[in-house]
Specification:
It contains 3 helices and 9 strands; from the N terminus they run βαβαβββαββββ. The chain has 176 residues and is an alpha/beta fold. α3 (104-114) links the parallel β5 (92-100) and β6 (120-128). It binds inosinic acid and magnesium ion.
């Protein structure tokens, strides 16, 4: 199969929007600290850029979850491959995710984090595909709402490839 990638959101547009998110988050958390929890691996590029645009003190932690499913759809059965390094009790946790698609991964994860009694848990996602939502997930900060297409770049992969693309692209497949 030939893989064709077309630009959906260019780098300049992405980084301008991330700057706005960082400013909004900095205002909302004024006088407080934020514990950023990135979901590996997709959120890494977004979180790095977002953190630079936040002016209140931040700390970083990461979690790796795998949701059993096929290449393009999660199942809702979530396995924690790497848990957080730090205790989140009484912290202002801001979960940073690449994309909320069906919402299954996040709805499971947010419940799990709430059980650990943080002061607060909010969710920031670069992308949201609202048309695909199956599980109820409240998103506090969204970069862009996008149509129901499979996308790659800016941290997002297809079969572990294309995470390094500086833009967000739609990937389509063609018989060779
Ligand atoms: P959900 O549980 O269906 O919301 O799945 C979310 C996860 O599926 C994301 O964190 C991504 O890792 C992956 N995912 C969903 N849609 C896409 C896409 O269009 N491109 C790449 N990964 C995706
Ligand atoms: Mg992910």
């Amino acid at each position: 199969m030939k893989e064709n990638i077309s630009v959906l959101i260019d780098n300049e547009t992405i980084e301008k929007r991330i700057k706005e998110l960082g400013e909004q988050i900095s205002r909302d958390y004024e006088g407080e600290d934020i514990h950023l929890v990135g979901i590996l691996k997709g959120s890494v590029i977004f979180m790095s850029q977002l953190a630079k645009c936040i002016t209140v003190p931040v700390t970083f932690d990461f979690m790796s979850v795998s949701s059993y499913g096929n290449e393009t759809e999660s199942s809702g059965v979530v396995k924690i491959a790497k848990d957080l390094d730090e205790v989140i009790k009484d912290k202002n946790v801001l979960v940073v995710e690449d994309i909320v698609d069906t919402g299954r991964t996040l709805s499971y994860l947010l419940e799990l984090l709430k059980q650990r009694e943080p002061a607060d848990v909010k969710l920031c996602t670069l992308l949201d595909k609202p048309d695909r939502r199956v599980a109820d997930v409240h998103v506090d900060y969204t970069g862009f709402e996008i149509p129901d297409k499979f996308i790659v770049g800016y941290g997002l992969d297809y079969a572990q490839k294309y995470r390094n693309l500086p833009y967000i692209g739609i990937i389509e497949f063609e018989e060779e």
